[in-house]
């Protein structure tokens, strides 16, 4: 067994997992003789014993344990949030129903109460009688009238409580098993989970795993289908849409790019539902293939210091664009760049009006090829306090960098709005306290989750960032102390923070020339021996003199936020190979050449 065991906060090199995750080695032999894989409260049968042809039957990657731990936490918080919203909607509907019934003199009292009493949800006498009267009298009710008695029936509402979850690309089904065993049933929990995979071997393996974990068919279901076809057949909106009976949560964790599933997912999730998105094609999102990135996500990636943040924003842009075409709005709850992939949790709302905000949350970036200057340009503007939209004004300098005169290249478009919801991140952090961790006993990566969420809470909403080591390296000046650089920007009245994956980031709303003015000031005090960009250093400093360097004080909680990978070569594993194992090929006989001599030529025939 390979035991991934947690370390201490004082020794970050030993930080791996807080508890033991056992992964059986892939030794040749019968798969049934190997011990099961244990992760959280789930236990799945071995994905394979190494086949003679060297291929894997079903994909399983222990590097994604943190992904699944974080997903369990987010779903538990989202389930509670969804239940609170549902109760608030039900209270308002009952208030409207009682007010309408009182106005029509169908209730004995003349006036409806200002607030619906709690007993109205538990004692459905009056709504049931009202529904019976309407049914007996044969009155024609509008769709809103039909919904009034239904929303007042606790027995119907109770049947609809809990999240309906789809894991569209389930493989072993370990994520589904963890959701089913680690999240509660009923209000605030999970009602039913559908695990889908296109590979028949994977579906058969899932069913064995469900039986091994004693999960009933009412709790989980394994289906063999195309993920897109299944999601399109269960659309939430449009003709034949399921409305609130659609999936509340859709989890997408493909091997590689998530782009083929974008359109189907944003249409299949219910109003206010949650999309859990993973994409592991970081070479494409990292700028190695900008043409492929544009084809997949509708935006080009650049090789720059902010590459991981831009990867997040490109994926988010593709989902927001697909949702806007359907009159829906995407709101990020928690979007993070982790290890070798990006993980996004976003809510999708039905709102054609708010979908118009998409342009104001979309931008491109102009990046200098010589220095690290960059300039963002939004596509739209919204007048403050009004729902008035207009085309954005040009804010970028032109074709040349105003700092060094270098050429500018263009990246994007990408999502330029916030990457997370502050209240939701705070809710998740509340679960990470020692007294609340016991509510999720299967989660093992508490230290890393707490560090990530704390770093996100302290991060500002400005799009993209500078990397201080890169800034100093481009000018060949000594490294500016990070806290001193940030503290000086703060003293000048600008926001500044790190990026949740990059501790050396300068994420600020300060104009580009202010950042480089501080570098020029530092270069004056610490002259470089040979600067490759003398024009940049020779530019006049626009900041008022004298300028005093200020050191940033200790901010936020003392939590380890940027932890190393648990072990070397921490990354994706080979793709699974579906289908039965092929018999070993027989050696081919050597080709024999038969020469036929003729009077004028020789013919060579190969047998």
Topology at a glance:
Elements (H helix, E strand, L loop, with lengths): L1 E3 L16 E3 L13 E3 L2 E3 L20 H39 L15 H4 L2 H13 L5 H9 L2 H6 L3 E5 L6 H9 L7 E8 L2 H13 L7 E5 L2 H7 L13 E6 L9 H7 E11 L2 H4 L4 H8 L9 H19 L2 E11 L2 E10 L1 H4 L6 E7 L5 E5 L1 E3 L6 E3 L16 E8 L6 H10 L14 H12 L8 E2 H8 L6 H10 L4 E4 L2 E7 L3 H14 L8 H5 L54 E5 L4 E5 L1
Parallel strand pairs: 5-6, 5-8, 6-7, 8-9
Antiparallel strand pairs: 1-2, 3-4, 9-11, 10-11, 12-13, 12-16, 14-15, 17-19, 18-19, 20-21
Helix pairs in contact: 1-14, 8-9, 9-12, 14-15
Commentary on this structure:
Helices cover 33% and strands 19% of the residues. The N terminus and C terminus are likely disordered. The radius of gyration is 29 Å and the shape is globular. It has a 7-stranded mixed β-sheet, with helices on both faces. Strands 13-12-16 form a 3-stranded antiparallel β-sheet. A 3-stranded antiparallel β-sheet has the order 17-19-18. Strand 12 and strand 13 form a beta hairpin.
């Amino acid at each position: 067994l390979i035991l991934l065991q947690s370390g201490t906060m004082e020794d970050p090199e030993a930080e791996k997992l807080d508890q033991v995750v056992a992964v059986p080695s892939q030794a040749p032999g019968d798969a049934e003789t190997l011990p099961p894989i244990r992760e959280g409260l789930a236990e799945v049968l071995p994905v394979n014993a190494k086949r003679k042809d060297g291929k894997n039957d079903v994909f399983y990657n222990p590097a994604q344990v943190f992904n699944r731990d974080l997903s369990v936490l987010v779903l538990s918080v989202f389930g509670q949030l969804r239940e609170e919203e549902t109760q608030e909607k039900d209270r308002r509907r009952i208030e409207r129903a009682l007010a309408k019934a009182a106005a029509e003199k169908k209730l004995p009292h003349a006036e409806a109460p200002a607030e619906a009493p709690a007993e109205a949800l538990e004692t459905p006498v009056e709504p049931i009688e009202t529904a019976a009267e309407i049914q007996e009298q044969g009155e024609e009710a509008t769709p809103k009238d039909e919904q009034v008695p239904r929303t007042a029936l606790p027995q119907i509402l109770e049947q609809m409580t809990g999240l309906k979850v789809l894991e569209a690309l389930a493989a072993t089904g370990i994520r589904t098993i963890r959701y089913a065993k680690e999240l509660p049933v009923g209000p605030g929990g999970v009602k039913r989970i559908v695990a889908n995979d296109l590979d028949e071997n994977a579906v058969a393996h899932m069913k064995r795993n469900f039986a091994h974990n004693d999960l009933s068919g009412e709790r989980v279901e394994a289906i063999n289908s195309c993920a897109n076809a299944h999601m399109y057949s269960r659309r939430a909106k449009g003709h034949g849409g399921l409305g609130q009976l659609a999936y509340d949560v859709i989890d997408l964790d493909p091997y590689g790019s998530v782009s083929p599933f974008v359109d189907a997912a944003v249409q299949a999730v219910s109003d206010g539902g949650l999309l859990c998105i993973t994409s592991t094609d970081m070479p494409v999102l990292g700028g190695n293939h900008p043409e492929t990135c544009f084809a997949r996500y509708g935006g080009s990636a650049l090789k720059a210091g902010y590459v991981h943040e831009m990867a997040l924003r490109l994926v988010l842009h593709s989902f927001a664009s697909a949702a806007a075409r359907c009159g829906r709005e995407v709101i990020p709850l928690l979007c993070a760049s982790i290890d070798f992939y990006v993980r996004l949790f976003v809510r999708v709302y039905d709102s054609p009006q708010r979908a118009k905000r998409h342009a104001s949350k979309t931008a491109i970036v102009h990046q200098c090829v010589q220095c690290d200057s960059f300039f963002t340009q939004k596509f739209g503007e919204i007048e403050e306090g009004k729902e008035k939209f207009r085309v954005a004004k040009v804010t970028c300098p032109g074709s040349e960098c105003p700092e060094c005169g270098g050429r500018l290249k263009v990246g994007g478009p990408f999502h330029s709005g916030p990457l997370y919801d502050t209240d939701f991140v705070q809710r998740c952090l509340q679960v990470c306290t020692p007294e609340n961790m016991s509510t999720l006993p299967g989660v093992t990566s508490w230290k890393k989750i707490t560090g990530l969420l704390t770093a996100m809470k302290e991060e500002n909403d400005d799009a993209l960032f500078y990397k201080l080591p890169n800034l100093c390296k481009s000018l060949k000046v000594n490294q500016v102390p990070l806290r001193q650089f940030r503290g000086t920007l703060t003293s000048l009245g600008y926001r500044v923070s790190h990026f949740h994956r990059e501790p050396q980031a300068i994420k600020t709303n300060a104009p580009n020339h202010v950042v480089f003015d501080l570098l020029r000031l530092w270069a004056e005090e610490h002259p470089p021996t040979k600067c490759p960009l003398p024009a940049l250093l020779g530019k006049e400093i626009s900041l008022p003199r004298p300028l005093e360097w200020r050191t940033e004080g200790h901010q936020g909680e003392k939590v380890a936020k940027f932890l190393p990978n648990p072990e070397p070569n921490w990354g994706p594993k080979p793709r699974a190979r579906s289908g039965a194992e092929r018999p070993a090929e027989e050696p081919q006989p050597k080709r024999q050449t038969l020469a036929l001599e003729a009077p004028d030529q020789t013919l060579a025939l190969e047998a």
